């Protein structure tokens, strides 16, 4: 996720120019190999963008590496004892928000802190009430779990005035500290990296000959920006056509996505070869319409999610059921990082500055996993904390 079900508007992030990704080696095959066991869609056609395709192949191979060593913090303050954290969730219906909350609780137990979760129920009023409840508890720290802090300005000010450090998870467009709203740091992958690897996967899978549909929620500037970055990266290959840009608000995805998918199939037929969405859940909602049209789970359109990577997405990829890839957030690692960043705040240290690299889950890398859980971080954080 870089995206959650935040329905509150915030200032749109400035689009970032999509640049080439310099990739290293990969233990899952050569840089020129396809990321799945099925034939590459469009392989029979010559690529119209050979240079972009070669760059994309290297990037995809690098992002599929499941054995990359831990590249995050290895030093920091020892655990500060007796702290309490409140995780204010935008909505626990969102798998990414809920999984991160669980990860923060797990890491809190490891360091010896109390962690409480309060559900904002996915509405501005609910979020404000949940945040107000969190401030009233006077905890050591508060997590903004997947929503724009500007949607709860008064509550954020109360926390700031009470010298309660706030850490965001997907709370602002960029990782790192924020002055306005005042956050000790914000934990997320870089949206431009997620968008680029999403587009590159489609370019590789289609051999540079794709008809793509993008699903987004334009009511949320962060999601709209991510979708625009995906589109921009796709169009670096002249053989890729963006057939449609579908704006479906996340809260309406269950009811609207099947109808829109049926319409897209009618409009574009076999020209629709690939899909990208700012959140995996669109593909769960698309499945009934695709089945109803006689599609098999491993038929085109081949779909990639550019956000979160929840367990259901892993299952769809593994079972080849209307999703072929996802760009997952390392939710468990980010939960540990949230606790580590709070520990740095309590110890009077600056934020670590760590940003997790993007990763790709495909049929080649999914195995029996249900989340992207990179190796090494648990042991590294426990060594830092001395627990």
Q: Give me the number of helical elements.
A: 11
Task: Return residue spans where pLDDT drops below 50 for at least 5 consecutive residues.
Answer: 1-39
Helix content: 25-40%
- Largest sheet, order of strands side by side? 2-1-3-4-5
Structure, explained:
- The structure is a single chain.
- With 387 residues, the protein is of the alpha/beta class.
- Helix content is 37%, strand content 12%.
- The chain has 11 helices and 10 strands.
- The strands form 2 sheets. The chain has a 5-stranded parallel β-sheet with strand order 2-1-3-4-5, with helices on both faces.
- Helix 9 links the parallel strand 9 (302-305) and strand 10.
- Helix 3 (124-136) packs parallel to helix 4 and helix 5 runs parallel beside helix 6 (221-234).
- It is globular.
- The chain starts with 49 loop residues before the first helix and ends with a helix.
Features:
387 residues, alpha/beta, 5-stranded parallel beta sheet, 10 strands, globular, disordered N terminus
Quick overview:
Helix content is 37%, strand content 12%. It is an alpha/beta fold and 387 residues long. The strands form two sheets. The chain has a five-stranded parallel β-sheet with strand order 2-1-3-4-5, sandwiched between helices. It has a five-stranded parallel β-sheet with strand order 7-6-8-9-10, sandwiched between helices.
Task: Give the helices and strands, then pairings.
Elements: H1 50-63, E1 84-89, H2 95-111, E2 114-119, H3 124-136, E3 141-145, H4 153-161, E4 166-169, E5 185-187, H5 191-205, E6 211-216, H6 221-234, E7 241-247, H7 253-268, E8 274-277, H8 281-292, E9 302-305, H9 311-319, E10 325-326, H10 331-346, H11 377-385
Helix pairs in contact: 1-5, 2-10, 3-4, 5-6, 7-8, 10-11
């Amino acid at each position: 996720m870089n995206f959650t079900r935040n329905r509150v508007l915030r200032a749109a992030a400035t689009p970032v120019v999509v640049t080439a990704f310099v990739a290293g080696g990969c233990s899952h095959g050569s840089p020129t190999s396809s990321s799945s066991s099925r034939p590459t869609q469009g392989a029979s056609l010559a690529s119209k963008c050979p240079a972009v395709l070669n760059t994309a192949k290297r990037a995809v191979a690098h992002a599929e590496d499941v054995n990359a060593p831990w590249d995050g913090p290895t030093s920091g303050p020892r655990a500060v004892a007796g702290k309490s954290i409140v995780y204010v969730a935008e909505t626990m219906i969102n798998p990414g928000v809920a999984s991160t909350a669980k990860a923060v609780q797990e890491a809190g137990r490891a360091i010896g802190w109390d962690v409480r979760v309060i559900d904002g129920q996915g509405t501005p009023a609910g979020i404000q009430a949940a945040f107000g409840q969190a401030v009233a508890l006077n905890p050591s720290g508060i997590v903004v779990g997947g929503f724009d802090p500007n949607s709860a300005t008064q509550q954020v000010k109360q926390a700031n005035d009470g010298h309660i450090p706030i850490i965001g998870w997907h709370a602002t467009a960029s990782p790192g500290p924020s002055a306005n709203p005042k956050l000790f740091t914000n934990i997320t992958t870089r949206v431009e990296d997620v968008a680029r690897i999403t587009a590159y996967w489609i370019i590789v899978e289609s051999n540079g000959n794709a008809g793509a549909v993008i699903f987004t929620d334009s009511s949320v500037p962060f999601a709209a920006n991510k979708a625009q970055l995906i589109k921009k990266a796709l169009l670096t290959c002249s053989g890729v056509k963006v057939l449609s840009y579908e704006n479906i608000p996340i809260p309406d995805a269950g009811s609207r996505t099947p109808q829109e998918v049926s319409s897209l199939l009618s409009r574009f037929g076999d020209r629709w070869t690939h899909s990208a969405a700012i959140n995996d859940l669109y593909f769960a909602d698309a499945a009934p319409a695709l089945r109803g049209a006689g599609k098999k789970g491993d038929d085109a359109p081949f779909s990639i999610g550019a956000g979160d990577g929840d367990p259901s997405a892993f299952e769809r990829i593994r079972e080849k059921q209307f999703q072929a890839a996802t760009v997952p957030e390392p939710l468990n690692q980010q939960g540990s990082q949230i606790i580590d960043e709070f520990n740095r705040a309590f110890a009077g240290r600056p934020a670590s500055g760590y940003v997790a690299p993007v990763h790709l889950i495909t049929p080649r890398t999914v195995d029996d996993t249900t989340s992207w859980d990179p190796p090494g971080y648990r042991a590294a954080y426990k060594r830092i904390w001395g627990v």
